[in-house]
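Question thread 4412

I'm putting together a teaching handout and wanted feedback from people who do this every day. The idea is simple: show students a protein as raw sequence, then show them the structure tokens that encode its fold, then repeat with a second protein so they can compare. Below is the first pair exactly as I plan to print it.
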Amino acid sequence: MSSALAAHHPHTQPHLEPQLEQICQRLALHDFCLLPAEQSRSLLQRFPGALADWAAFQDSWNHLQQDKFMADGGRYRKRLHATLSAEPSARQARAEAHRPHYQSKLYNPLNGGVPRHFEPIRNEILHGATMQAALSLGCAIFGQLSPYTPWHIEAHQFRIETRNRQPGWPTPEGVHRDGVHFLMMMMVKRHNLVSGATELFNLEKQPLASFTLTDPLDIALVNDERVLHGVTPVSQLDPSRDGNRDVLLISFRRR
């Protein structure tokens, strides 16, 4: 990942800095920011080799593992997970030893309170150009908002499935916070779906925004300390075919 893209770094590329500045201002003012695919693609392509492995990256969602920690007994979610870290004003995020994912029941009343051991994201995907560009973009944006912070980063590949006229639940725990500081949610692919709207609320649970990530590379950035989020259930558009919602979620928490 390139240090040239951390907006606070002395060697920031000038043609990228105004875009990052604008995104950071929107995040600081509204606590969330939606980046349409065209804008996200432009930002990601500033990083070396970005999106060169997009086909393999997108296809890797076909190899996720069943989430065995669903307290509701649901079999509609598949996922893989990785843990990373970054230093303040990071030049890159580095992979850490694989470890369980943990959330307290305060943040996840459905599945929290236990260490959840998910299979790791495949190395060729984690270290590939698209994932590295997404991580770099997160480091650049959130590093500008909090330039002296060392980050604990977790990446999650999620697939929510809907089949046999049964809905899939992207956020089965309901409207919630993740217990981190910032979130990046990137659409990878939607197939044969109805709904799946992202809904954002302030800490008093008053609505802030509702939008649907539809196109590959649509990205939502959220200040998780100040915003609650949820996603409405997905259903099949054509009941004779299965539907999938493939999303990359990257969380940043102060280490």
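The second pair follows. I'd like the answer to focus on this one:
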Amino acid sequence: MNRLLLAAYPEPYRSRQGEELLTCLSEAYPGRSWPPPREVAALVRAGVQARARAVVDDTARPWWLDGIHLSALTLAALALVPYLQDVWHWALHIDPGQHAIAFRFSGWYPWAEGPTRIRLLPYGLLPLGCLIALLRGRPWIALPAAAAMIWAGATSHGRTVFGDEGKAGLGYYGLGAPITARDLVLSGALCTACAVLALCRPSRLRRRSYRWLAPVVLAMFVAGGLHIISISPAFQRGLFVLEVAALIAAWVATAATGDYRWLIPVAAVAFIRTQAIVNQPDAFMQSFPDLVVLLLLIAPLPVLAITAQRRENRALAE
């Protein structure tokens, strides 16, 4: 099990020092397949720091371009979240019946049982295609998908293509306010980021392995297999924990490098959520006071900026 901890480190580190690290763990904790939680947290933090330094040391692209790329990936994943169950059911031709995601019409596929209005594709295929294209560093493929998201949300045409999914009913919980495809700020920001990436020499973008899609497939399997909709408390709590972990990772990376690239995706998500709350102030989650929600949205931005500034000043002093 100790080998799972090595996944937090970049490949060059694993090839050079991976076996040495495993030997140290086996000697320090004999007979245990897993070190204590404090040691696990320290190893994961060191791995995130090593990955962050490797990213900063790669001068093939400017930091702001990498930050916009990360923002586009984050926004595509944000747009996909409410439709994980829907895409999984469509891909496997599963009729969820009463367990369909909470939109106006359940089903909408020609093969669904019972009375249904026909649609050809799930709306979630658009952010999924955008996410895959961005992972592979091909924004010219992601741009049409993002533009189609704007079209689907802004028009009432083509209902037999995507139906009302994402246009009626709740979407991503937004840490206080629902976001639907009819809210064009999310799809517009994603389309703008893809356009910038497509115009700025896409060959310079970082290309990630298809293995990064494994968590997406796992999330689809869980949401589709257990019929967990995006507005259920279990879904919201799990996603909140995941986002807190991502914020901590961004803080660790910023503190280790003093680089501002991780501030860009955090700012993009905070902007999307804040405008959703401003537009729908009555849609706050009842379990969160308004002030707490706003603090959770805004606080990470100055924290990351101050952390990067302090790390930069420390580097200059040394």
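Top answer:
Good format. For the second protein you could add a caption like this: The two ends are 39 Å apart (CA to CA). DSSP finds 14 helices and no strands in the chain.
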